[in-house]
Amino acid sequence: VVLFDDPEAEVRAQAIKTVTDGYGRNLGLDIIPGPSGEGHSLTRVLIEKLQDDSLRVRQQALLGLGRVQDASAAKAILAEAAREDYRVSHIYTRHACVMAMAGSVPTEDLVALKDHNSDFVRACAVVALRRRGDSGVVAFFDDKDSVTAADAARAVHDDWMIPEAMPQLAAALGKQIESEGFTRRAINANFRLGDLESAKRVAAFVADGKAREDLLEAGLEALEAWSEPDVLDLVVGRHRALEPRDASIVAEAIGANIDALLSSEYASVRTAAMKAAREAKLAIARGTLLSLLENPKVSGVIRAEALRTLAAQGEVGLGDIVAGVLGDKADEVRMAGLELLVDQDSDSALEEIRSRVTGDQPVPVKQHAIRLLPKVNGVEAMTKLVGGLVDGIMAPPLQLDVLEAAKDPAFAEVDAITKPIANLEASWMAAMTTDPVMPYRYALAGGNAERGKSVFMNHAAAQCIRCHKVNDTRGGSNVGPNLKNVGLARKPEYILQALVDPQAVIAKGYGNISLTLKDGSTVAGVYRREDKKHVVIREVTNDEVKIPVEKIAERSPIISTMPPMGFIVDKGELRDLVAYMKTLQSEKK
To answer: Does residue 18 register a pLDDT over 70?
Structure first.
């Protein structure tokens, strides 16, 4: 303790750290219990160190006060956090204040900070309550800073969650309508609760139509998954399994808002609403469906959903309707018609499939037809397509569709189909040691950019948008490179390799590196660049540090933190991601 007053600031800081490290909890995700209710012998001297001229000393004093868990330090901690020169961007100081608040400031004092005029103080209070797992964090749902409000939502929703506060987060849906982080978590809070009131709240939010299109779509995606939830969380992608719910819940919620949903200004919302209604077995007026189907000015996607809904509702004249749409101008309608024909008349469907595959049809129509072959026992047609695939004469956009259709269990006993495919895949596996991209090359062409965008933005496991941006404005993160012009700057082969073998093509300035210096110390951070004299690293503070080459003893390889997407998404989703990323062609400024 005597060294707390040493003339050297770093000695004072390290002395405080050494003495206080033995108290409190140190694991990053441990719940911090808050003030112990007892005084501590170090509290007074640590409070005195909050007046030190050195920021490093004050930071260590704050961390120490958090560890001793003495509520008598609360007033001094809050006064220190309220310094006018502290900013949210000062991450080390922010962390120190958070830990001090979490350990030694009572809950009622933290909640009272919701009206504090300092963004820094309120931001620290939210994270402190999160570290404590305290439901009092809901007081910040109305914060004037949408980032702080979103952090409050994360406190309730992410990590280990605060279950008792989940109903309040669900009820807050629509409060921070411009905040994607807040709104997606509020939607998911309702989804996790799963009751009728929550389903109605989400349906009403979408029907109201005031949020961005992608957030309205997120609401509908939750409603579509309501009855049979996936084991992965819709927002954070963690394993958070839920039990199946009564399908009548979502049917009633959608039914109460169906007129507003079907009249949304966004075609994507109207389409998803109709699909959700169909899957919920919610009846839509026959006249409405026929009017949509027969109107050529309505988008093909919506007309196709109208056709499927008519079929699901047992339309008496479905056979004539299907016959009439097989030649429709809209690809989506023709594809929906073929799906229904497969169920009605497999022989006629097989002939239609052959006609589409060999004829002058758009790629999506051909792909769709190929994938229906297993359902109509199209052995002869499938065998011929597999031959073209193995011989290397199959059109690239159709290669993946042929491969996956050929692996359908319907053809499991057909050696003329299964053996060539098995040999092909065995050759890919043999080549993987030198070419990790080989098994994925069929994903280079034929993808759907709209579906790829959905994977990029919403895939529960891939979570692309959590690390990347696709523009310079809203959404995404700077953890990985901004991909706004990747389709312009890079060829599809590069994009595919970056997805399935990210270690091979690390974007400049985004790989991590560790340097061991000749004096035994280490420096780690993001590798930026180097020349003959220096290696430049960006530290966690965002500051660039030049390390003289002559001082470096060892260096680690540059490591990509991105996981290989081939193990996370299927090949169809991978192909769609490549197609979407090819559309990102903003001019780089």
So the answer is: yes
